TrEMBL record:
Belongs to the neutral sphingomyelinase family. The chain crosses the membrane at residues 85-107. It comes from the Eukaryota. It is an enzyme of class 3 (hydrolase). Pfam families: Exo_endo_phos (PF03372). Residues 135-455 form the Endonuclease/exonuclease/phosphatase domain. The keyword rRNA processing does not apply. Keywords: Hydrolase, Membrane, Transmembrane, Transmembrane helix. Gene3D superfamilies: Endonuclease/exonuclease/phosphatase. This is sphingomyelin phosphodiesterase. Its EC number is 3.1.4.12.
Length: 464
């Protein structure tokens, strides 16, 4: 018996629309009367009426049980299969499109006001500078969340570099300046621009769907860059697979009659403890050196501008014995193989794995026979640029730096950062005054780090 019948209220047949389900009919009967106050209800009846008076559900034409009786009201806007498909697509595509738009903006390079370069200032620099100041260093500015120890103080080190390092140089090549998922490198570029570095070349930006970050390379110059190029290597091995490593080139105009080719690269790292080499790392790295040689050939072989290759080449040039205080005056096998490939001579892989072929690989018809390691030429040995030590007053040796350097690389006394020079048959420009730059922070600065990177830098002067 219906609720209205219990209350003694009767509706005529013509008052009720045809083609109603039982639930719709009961809802139709009750709602108007409630609104007019013609029916009084007990609490239990009110609960029943609340259920009966709900808007009719139409989401399914098939009876699916009591839990489906009122679903038509909830999904009344999806009365067709086509509408439901569109709704599902929107639910899926909107987050994807939003994420893509966010990444396209956040991961892209910030623009610099290149239309406001004071050309008269640049011209004055070219006319008055006779010894441009060079610097290369691995700034150890990796993507967010990647660190060796508790904290690597990225923001603090970046501010220190901007204030205390940039002002002293004219051409700087940087490695591990990773722009992926952060704005630090954009901050660096903006600050450098404000200091007169109006020209730069950087690794291409990459996005999350590339499954790897950028190569982290950067060339900054106060002098005009007349031409620039960049390459990306095939993906590396181990953690290097997550970075599109490569090389950059800038043809820099020192003055209207003198130019120089500047290159920087950061090659496959060695992931064995202490920088020990293994076949997989070395094979990848040699292929990258071959790509760099070809890159130089493609961009510099048809002129006589000097060639300068600077960077963290991840090859320890030093030979090690039990006395780490003794400088290494001999070349390691890995270093010899690297130089043979970079000059175009080529090398043999069986030198590091006798199971491989003894044929010469990575040889080139174009040679850089005068490619010179300026650090070795200056010091007569391979200076330490990574994993250094210091001697205490009592004669004990301890790591020179522990805040940034990985624990398994402490006191490994490696020489892995290079400044390589080829005159390229040019007699008007020379290089000298090479200096290893530890970049220790002074005690007065009260910084939480003792040097700006886990690497030392290399500086030099060009003589015009």
């Amino acid at each position: 018996m219906s609720l209205l019948a219990k209350k003694g209220i009767k509706l005529t047949e013509h008052s009720i629309p045809s083609r109603m389900t039982e639930n719709d009919r009961r809802s139709f009967e009750v709602s108007p009367l409630l609104n007019e106050g013609r029916v009084s209800m007990t609490p239990s009846e009110e609960e029943e009426v609340d259920i009966l008076a709900a808007a009719p559900a139409i989401c399914s034409r098939k009876k699916k049980g009591p839990q489906w009786q009122n679903c038509r009201a909830t999904f009344c806007c999806c009365t067709s299969k086509k509408a439901r498909i569109i709704l599902c697509l929107l639910v899926i595509l909107l987050p994807i499109l939003s994420f893509t738009l966010f990444c396209s903006i956040y991961f892209s390079a910030a623009s610099l006001p290149t239309d406001t370069i004071p050309l008269d200032q640049v011209s004055s620099l070219q006319q008055t500078t006779t010894a441009p100041r060079l610097l290369t260093f691995n700034m150890f500015m990796r993507p967010p969340g990647i660190k060796n120890n508790k904290d690597d103080f990225k923001n603090e080190r970046l501010e220190y570099i901007v204030q205390n390092i940039l002002p002293h140089y004219d051409i700087i090549t940087v490695q591990e300046a990773f722009a992926y998922a952060n704005r630090r490198i954009d901050t660096l570029l903006s600050a450098a621009f404000a200091q007169g570095f109006y020209y730069h070349v950087a690794s291409a930006r990459h996005y999350p769907w590339h499954l790897a970050g950028d190569g982290g390379l950067l060339i900054l110059s106060r002098f005009p860059i007349k031409k620039s190029n960049r390459i990306e290597f095939s993906r590396g091995v181990h953690s290097d697979w997550l970075s599109f490593k490569g090389a950059l080139h800038a043809l820099i105009e020192l003055n209207p009659t003198q130019h120089i080719h500047v290159y920087t690269t950061h090659t496959q790292a060695s992931y064995d403890n202490g920088g020990a080499i293994n076949f997989d790392d070395t094979k990848v790295r040699l292929s990258q050196f071959a790509a760099v040689h070809q890159f130089i050939s493609d961009t510099a072989k048809n002129d006589t501008h000097p060639i300068l290759l600077m960077g963290d080449l991840n090859v320890d040039a030093a030979t090690h014995d039990d006395v780490i205080e003794q400088p290494s005056r001999h070349n390691s096998l890995a270093y010899t193989m690297m130089m043979d490939v970079l000059t175009g001579k080529g090398t043999r892989l069986d030198l590091i794995d006798n199971k491989t072929s003894s044929e010469t690989v990575y040889a080139s018809d174009w040679k850089l026979n005068d490619l010179t390691d300026i650090a070795y030429k200056t010091y007569g040995y391979h200076p330490i640029t990574f994993g250094d030590y210091k001697k205490l007053d009592n004669g004990s040796l301890v790591p020179a730096e522990t805040t940034l350097t990985s624990h398994n690389q402490l006191m490994t006394v490696q020489s892995i950062d290079r400044l390589l020079w080829s005159s390229n048959n040019n007699t008007h420009i020379s290089i000298g005054n090479l200096t290893v730059e530890p970049f220790f922070t002074s005690n007065e600065t009260n910084q939480p780090f003792t040097q700006i990177s886990d690497h030392y830098g290399l500086s030099a002067l060009l003589y015009l």
